Amino acid sequence: QVQLVESGGALVQPGGSLRLSCVASGNTALVKNMDWYRQAPGKEREFVATITARGATTYSDSVSGRFTCSRDNSKPAMYLQMSRLQPEDTAIYYCHVKLFITADDVWGQGTQVTVSS
């Protein structure tokens, strides 16, 4: 009933910036908080950031101060502005929503971010 589509991933040099987006469609009334996760090869999926329906944000220690999450409630859509990227940020970045009422977990297909010189 809800679909998430990420975009914006690319190959960038260390120190560079990227802006990721996640657009929700379907029954978006079920979309409240939205989250970013990432998974690098050989590592477990890890939390990156979350943003509430009214815009309050929380970040993991590894990205705090470098990444900024925002949203547009007219869609809704979520964005992740990534700055001062490091090779350790290389991962597939996923958008996630735990649907209101149903508590179903919905994931996007992911977008690849590669940080390399």
Describe the model.
The protein has 117 residues and is mostly beta strands. It is 0% helix and 51% strand. It has strands at 2-7, 11-12, 18-26, 34-39, 46-51, 57-59, 67-72, 77-82, 91-98, 105-107, 111-115. The strands form 2 sheets. Strands 2, 4, 5, 6, 9, 10 and 11 form a 7-stranded mixed β-sheet that branches. Strand 9 and strand 10 form a beta hairpin.
Distance between the termini: 40 Å
Instruction: Give the low-confidence spans.
Output: none
The DSSP helix count reads: 0
Could you describe the largest sheet, including whether it forms a barrel?
A: 7 strands, mixed
Structural class: mainly beta
Fraction of residues in helix: under 10%
What percentage of amino acids are in beta strands?
over 45%
* Overall average pLDDT: 97
List SSEs in N-to-C order.
Answer: EEEEEEEEEEE
Q: Rg, please? A: 14 Å
Number of strands: 11
Shape: globular
